[in-house]
Write a structure and sequence with these properties.
The protein has one domain. It is built from six helices and five strands.
Length: about 180
């Protein structure tokens, strides 16, 4: 590689590192994927929401409009997801979730912490219904074209897992249960 090319690439990467220097709080708790394991629960309301989220872009947009959710802002996937869930937490889903926040893992991996009200795990499925509603909103936003910052590579690796010892979930990109690594 030419010396000038090497310097250019170095400057490019330094610029990216400066952009990423925003400090977010560290969430150093462990995670569990138990809510995503097993068969999907049989619930008419959740089944309808999952169907609408995955049907067509028009149907997904109508579902999000019904929930009072518009296209989120943010250039990075975690900023867009944070804004999306912020809108969800100020609407009908405020029954079981509160305002999310951007966090990072001990290793610096970005994510979105979704604090849940204590009622979230009181459903007859130990919290799977609440988890399903959050997941359906994210998939609906993706199918409606609201989350352009989440390309197919990110969506494939997006994890939503329960934070151990807390009433909350964390959404991050990586292998299952790799948040603490």
């Amino acid at each position: 590689m030419l010396n000038t090319t090497r310097q250019f690439v170095k400057l490019l990467f330094e610029e990216e590192e400066k952009e990423e220097s925003t400090t977010y709080p560290v969430l150093s708790a462990g995670v569990s994927n138990k809510l995503s394991l097993g068969k999907p629960i049989q619930d008419a309301g959740l089944a309808n929401m999952r169907y609408r989220a995955n049907a067509s872009a028009t149907e997904a947009k109508e579902m999000l409009d019904d929930l009072g959710i518009s296209k989120p802002s943010g250039s990075k996937w975690y900023e867009a997801l944070d804004d999306l869930l912020e809108q969800a937490s100020s609407g009908e889903m405020s029954v079981f979730m509160t305002s999310p926040s951007i966090v990072k893992s001990k290793s610096g991996k970005p994510g979105v912490y979704i604090p849940l009200k204590s009622i979230w795990k009181d459903d007859d499925k130990g919290g799977k219904r609440s988890f399903g509603f959050i997941r359906a909103v994210i998939m609906g936003a993706r199918n409606a074209g609201y989350l352009s910052a989440l390309d197919s590579r990110i969506i494939k690796r997006l994890r939503i897992e329960q934070v151990l010892g807390q009433d909350g979930l964390v959404a991050y990109v990586g292998k299952s249960q790799s948040w603490g690594e």
